[in-house]
């Protein structure tokens, strides 16, 4: 229950799904957690249930000034940062023939530019030996219809993580990624698709997963804890698929 005792963790997209499950687990493991999201009402709601040493910070990761303020508020409150978990993301669906500039900008600004700018702001404040974790996805390993721009945004992040791994090596900062397969989170309700289409898509995903089901946010949180804890002290630069085997068949 103390794998992250006295560690300071900043989590983006922490009011929902994978980010929220990880915030809960980190707090249980003794971390001080900066719970960040883009909607104040959602942050207020989750703050009622979270237990432990945490603050909430309103920050839209697509905005450079918000990334700066997120890191400033985190360090003003807790000093240095040990874990930066870049988890916020969106996955609106559009076939390649319907892609618009707005669709591209929304996805890349949140999924790719956001983490890149948050890292730039955070690096001077991350303790040597600290940990940076991305929430990536298996979508850049397999083609899923309608997820072209989303997949490209995550593929770009994977490439960025490799360079980052090298550039922070002198400070002993570990850089890893988790790549979930289909996980039961509110993400699917935000894809801009009718409910029946989401239901059908869900059945298709579940059937394609060798373990025959969606994963749970808590199952991703367990991996996020492992990769950012001392137990993973020699694991660096990897992307861990947590997908019931979907990416491997
Ligand atoms: N669920 C899956 O099957 C799956 C699979 C692979 C990868 N992922 C990745 O997992 C991550 C977490 O997604 P999830 O499934 O847990 O979905 P989720 O419950 O919708 O969580 C996404 C979080 O990111 C936040 N967010 C979105 N845009 C933001 C912005 N501009 N600034 C700050 N926060 C923002 C969301 O805020 P709001 O509540 O305001 O929307 C929410 O808190 C994402 O990076 C996603 O790409 C998910």
TrEMBL record:
Q: Which InterPro entries match?
A: NAD(P)-bd_dom_sf (IPR036291), SDR_fam (IPR002347)
UniProt-listed Pfam families: adh_short_C2
Which keywords does this Swiss-Prot/TrEMBL entry list?
Answer: Oxidoreductase
Specify whether Oxidoreductase is a keyword of the entry.
Answer: yes
The GO terms describing molecular function are: glucose 1-dehydrogenase [NAD(P)+] activity
- UniProt-listed CDD domains: SDR_c
What's the top EC group for this one? oxidoreductase
This entry's Enzyme Commission designation comes to: 1.1.1.47
Record's PANTHER family? EG:BACR7A4.14 PROTEIN-RELATED, ZGC:101858
Q: Which NCBIfam families match?
A: PRK07231.1 (NF005559)
Family assignment from sequence similarity: Belongs to the short-chain dehydrogenases/reductases (SDR) family.
This protein's name: Glucose 1-dehydrogenase
* Origin species: Seonamhaeicola marinus
């Amino acid at each position: 229950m103390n794998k992250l005792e006295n560690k300071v963790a900043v989590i983006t997209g922490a009011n929902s799904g994978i980010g929220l499950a990880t915030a809960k687990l980190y707090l249980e493991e003794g971390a001080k957690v900066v719970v960040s999201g883009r909607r104040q009402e959602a942050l207020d709601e989750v703050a009622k249930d979270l237990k432990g040493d945490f603050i909430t910070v309103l920050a839209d990761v697509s905005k450079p000034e918000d990334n700066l303020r997120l890191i400033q508020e985190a360090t003003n409150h807790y000093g240095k940062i040990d874990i930066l978990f870049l988890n916020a993301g969106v996955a609106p669906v559009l076939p390649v023939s319907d892609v618009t500039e707005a669709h591209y900008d929304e996805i890349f600004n949140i999924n790719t530019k956001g983490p890149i700018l948050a890292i730039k702001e955070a690096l001077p404040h991350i303790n040597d030996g600290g940990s940076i974790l991305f929430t990536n996805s298996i979508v850049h390993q397999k083609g899923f219809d309608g997820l072209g721009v989303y997949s490209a945004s995550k593929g770009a992040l994977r490439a960025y993580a490799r360079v980052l791994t090298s550039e922070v090596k002198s400070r002993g900062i570990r850089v890893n990624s988790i790549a979930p397969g289909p996980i039961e989170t509110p993400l699917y309700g935000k894809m801009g698709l009718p409910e029946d289409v989401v239901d059908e898509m869900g059945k298709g995903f579940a059937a394609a997963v060798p373990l025959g089901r969606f994963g749970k946010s808590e199952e991703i949180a367990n991996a996020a804890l492992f990769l950012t804890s001392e137990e993973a002290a020699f694991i660096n630069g990897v992307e861990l698929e947590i997908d019931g085997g979907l990416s491997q068949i």
